[in-house]
Amino acid sequence: MNNSIHEIRAKIQKGESSCIELTKSYLQKIEENKHLNTFLEVFSEEALENAARIDKKIIGGNAGKLAGLILGLKDNICYKGHKISASSKILEGFESLYSATVVERLIAEDTIIIGRLNCDEFAMGSSNENSAYGEVLNPVDNSKVPGGSSGGAAAAVKAGLCHAALGTDTGGSVRQPASHCGVVGLKPTYGRVSRYGAIAYASSFDQIGPITNNIEDMALIMEVIAGSDEYDSTCSSQDVPNYRKELQLTGVKKIGYIKDCLENPGLDAEIKSRLEVIIKELRLQGHEVVPVDFPYTDFLVPAYYVLTTAEASSNLARYDGIHYGYRSDQTDSWESVYFKSRSEGFGKEVKRRIMLGTYVLSAGYFDAYYAKAQKVRRIFRDKTNEILNTHDFILLPTTPNTAPELGENTKDPIAMYLEDIFTVQAPLTGLPAISLPIGEHTNGMPFGIQLMGRRFSETALFAFSNEMMQNFGDN
Ligand code: GLN
Q1: Residue 171 Cβ contacting ligand 1 at under 6 Å
Q2: What is this structure's pTM?
């Protein structure tokens, strides 16, 4: 099942496989792996109907670019006529009235959408333990978390329950679970992929990103979902390159690694030594790999949590018990509809963030927190771009540790927030970053190595990632 979409398509064309057969086998695997709690809902009948339809198109020679792809959607990406909950009780019973642009584009190219995937509530979390529908287990070791917030998505791809998945990444939610589960995860450049139809968490950070087993599939899916969209004004009109055709070797690169990240006392010793080995090998292959200064690592997580909670408190104001989903029945006045519906509908972490965000935006504190964090964000961006002006990529760990035990961090939100130390720089600066599954710990868990690139440099990022996967991956 780890073939590329391209290889699967070729097999179907030769009559060696079919969308129906593939869909049935995924449905069976989903059934066998229910204990992982990855899917909140499986669209079995519909997926089989679409599979039959797409098989005919393949035989007829008029199938779309992604025919043969069976994909899961994180439960915060809208699919018309289907339930969506962002793993929150507050959206109980709500159905999407329209599809996200990415979903429209995937379907137009004959992707089969097999179901919606568990995640942290409103994408807030790093372990998938904040879901109103229960935790997801890491398929590599069921006593561990899969990471978050797109934990269901990464776990489902790793366990072979779908071929690929779409997640969202605000501070690491695609890359971090990809690292913990041993798959590839991308946060595209801000504005590369339309956010229309993705439930907003922190709008100036959010990006939809794929989770795949290999770079070729990543490139192909990005070719389909990226590009301008009249429904998202922050989406760039820059042309979308033919990513998959441009995966060949790209010559000698100059790569910077941030000294403070490598020397960070929270970084696991084996992850550190893996990075050191990779740096050495890359040098032997002729690349220039040099230490770079980015003296702000300790300020990344605090700035991220000021800005994202501020945006979240505003974005989540719309869930009022009236417009969407859940409404408390314990109400005796219009005011108590809001109060009780929100109190009962939101989980603990979401409430914590709404309160934090409201606080940093409130009169008297706005300048001290929100405005200051915006200025700091600009400094991060300028400094990171300065590095990337003279380096092709920045190499860094994805996560400080391998996947924690279930429950290990749930009592300590700060420990949970610090899990994001290496992933928040990319969304704070709007840059693309990818996590590659090229680490294996002696504790048996996989871990990712991250590459961050220049704005809209996905072509170069994919080509170099492909080279890294070939040199340092296990295939
Ligand atoms: N763990 C981070 C947070 O909780 C990232 C979440 C995300 O990227 N959606 O905010």
Answers
A1: yes
A2: 0.97
Residues 6 or more apart in contact with residue 437 via CB below 8 angstroms: 178, 179, 182, 183, 184, 446, 447, 448, 473
Q: Ligand 1 pocket test: which of 74, 120, 131 has the largest number of ligand atoms within 8 Å of its C-beta? A: 120
Contact present, 173 and 211 (Cβ < 8 Å): no
Catalytic residue check, 435: no
Segment (H or E) for 94: none
| Domains defined along the chain, listed by start | 5-246 (3.90.1300.10), 302-367 (no CATH)
Q: Model confidence over 368-396: pLDDT tens digits?
A: 999 999 999 999 999 999 999 999 999 99
Q: Is 124 in the pocket of ligand 1 (CB under 6 A)?
A: yes
Active-site residue, from 4, 65, 74, 87: 74
149 labelled catalytic? yes
Quick check: is 96 catalytic? no
pLDDT of residue 126: 96
Query: Which residues have C-beta within 8 Å of that of residue 185, sequence separation ≥ 6?
Result: 150, 154, 167, 169, 174, 175, 176, 177, 178, 179, 209, 210, 211, 434, 435, 448
435, 391 contact by CB (below 8 A): no
